[in-house]
Specification:
4 helices; single chain; mainly alpha; 129 residues; 73% helix
């Protein structure tokens, strides 16, 4: 028997992000999209790959976050793990791209924390009985 059918309380609904975390998330996604556009599109290298893999995902997620979609905030946090790994890899291995990589690292961490702040507050803010 499922938890829903057993009468068990499923717990509180996911907390809505605070306005400050929402704006930080939105700003970081726009900044990531801009960073990737400068990094990959302006030099003229890998234009299609840079646009489809790096520029469009944070731009589309920014639109979703601006529309207050919790699913967009979730996927932003998931993709930020990829951006974090990408930044670490390039900061370690490519001295020419190190500045871009560090900016990507910082923005990815900000996306991860701002996307998950409401959930962390809800989870860690509970009183233990």
């Amino acid at each position: 028997m499922s938890a829903a059918g057993s009468g068990a309380d499923p717990g509180p609904a996911p907390a809505a992000p605070s306005p400050r975390a929402h704006w930080v998330l939105l700003g970081c996604l726009i900044a990531l999209s801009t960073l990737f556009a400068v990094w990959y599109l302006l030099p003229g290298q890998h234009w299609i790959a840079g646009l489809s893999v790096f520029v469009l995902p944070p731009a589309l997620l920014a639109v979703g976050v601006a529309l207050r979609s919790r699913l967009a905030a979730y996927w932003a946090g998931v993709l930020a793990l990829f951006w974090f790994c990408h930044g670490v890899m390039l900061a370690w291995s490519s001295p020419d791209e190190r500045l871009y990589a560090w900016i990507e690292l910082i923005l990815a961490l900000a996306v991860i924390f701002s996307a998950n702040l409401a959930g962390m507050k809800a989870r860690l803010g509970r009183k233990r009985s």
